């Protein structure tokens, strides 16, 4: 049985879900960002219990097909930008179309309708959150970060960063309290 889960955005999320499944005596076939494979079927009571437990730790079981599609789009974007070693310089519309095996125009319109923003803006915000993370780590120069994140120049990255955060990357880096958003809040 496949269960789609909202707000699973990192490896810790997967560990938390696995821990809760174990506590409930449920065996998973796999746990990925945004989805859980459960061995066998779940009774309505067990599913309700799982839903409550997951909600208590910040997740939500998705039953609506549109919500599942939106969560899958978000999961693929988050995975590419935050968790993969792949080059983020991809054609995002083709990437999303290939991953979801659906027409990009349909997915884009659905995303905008449900989320109230475009996929492109969502991608920009995810990239800026990743840039914030890289700035806080202080291991790469701004030029290296721009290159890693697929920006054509430091100036373009800086402009987009300022437009989204209201701060320059240099100023953000100098602030003692670098506040990043949780990925499920972006």
Characterize the structure shown.
This protein is α+β, with helices and mostly antiparallel strands and 186 residues long. The chain folds into 2 domains: 2-62, 2-Layer Sandwich (Alpha-Beta Plaits), CATH 3.30.70.100; 65-186, Arc Repressor Mutant, subunit A (Orthogonal Bundle), CATH 1.10.10. It contains 9 helices and 4 strands, in the order E-H-E-E-H-E-H-H-H-H-H-H-H. A 4-stranded antiparallel beta sheet has the order 2-3-1-4, sandwiched between helices. Strand 2 and strand 3 (35-38) form a beta hairpin. Helix 6 crosses helix 8. The longest helix has 19 residues, at 65-83. The protein is globular. The two termini are 29 Å apart. The model has no long low-confidence stretch (mean pLDDT 90).
Give a topology summary.
Elements: E1 2-6, H1 11-23, E2 28-32, E3 35-38, H2 44-56, E4 60-62, H3 65-83, H4 92-100, H5 104-115, H6 119-137, H7 142-148, H8 154-165, H9 169-174
In DSSP terms, counting alpha (H) and pi (I) runs of 4 or more, how many helices? 9
Strand content: 5-15%
Over all CA atoms, what is the radius of gyration? 18 Å
What order do the SSEs take from the amino end to the carboxyl end, as H and E?
Answer: EHEEHEHHHHHHH
Write out the CATH superfamily name of the largest domain: Homeodomain-like
CATH topology label of the largest domain: Arc Repressor Mutant, subunit A
Q: What are the low-pLDDT stretches, counting only 5+ consecutive residues below 50?
A: none
For the largest sheet, list the strands in their spatial order: 2-3-1-4
Q: What is the CATH domain class of the largest domain?
A: Mainly Alpha
Q: Tell me, what's the shape?
A: globular
Task: Compute the separation of the termini in Å.
Answer: 29 Å
The number of distinct β-strands equals 4
Let me know the largest β-sheet: 4 strands, antiparallel
What is the domain total for the residues? Answer: 2
Output the structural class: alpha+beta
Architecture (CATH level 2) name of the largest domain: Orthogonal Bundle
The averaged pLDDT comes out at: 90
Helix content: 55-70%
């Amino acid at each position: 049985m496949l269960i789609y889960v909202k707000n699973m955005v990192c490896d810790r999320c997967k560990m938390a879900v696995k821990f809760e499944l174990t506590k409930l005596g449920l065996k998973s076939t796999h746990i990925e960002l945004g989805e859980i494979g459960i061995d066998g079927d779940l009774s309505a009571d067990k599913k309700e219990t799982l839903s409550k437990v997951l909600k208590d730790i910040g997740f939500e079981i998705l039953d609506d097909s549109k919500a599942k599609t939106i969560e899958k789009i978000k999961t693929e974007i988050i995975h590419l930008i935050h968790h993969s070693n792949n080059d983020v310089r991809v054609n995002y519309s083709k990437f999303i179309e290939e991953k979801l095996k659906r027409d990009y125009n349909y997915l884009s319109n659905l995303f905008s309708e449900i989320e109230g923003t475009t996929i492109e803006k969502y991608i920009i915000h995810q990239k800026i959150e990743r840039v914030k993370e890289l700035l806080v780590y202080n291991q790469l120069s701004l030029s290296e970060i721009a290159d890693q994140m697929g920006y054509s120049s430091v100036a373009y990255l800086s402009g987009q960063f300022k437009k989204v955060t209201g701060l320059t990357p240099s100023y953000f880096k100098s602030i003692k309290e670098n506040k990043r958003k949780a990925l499920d809040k972006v």
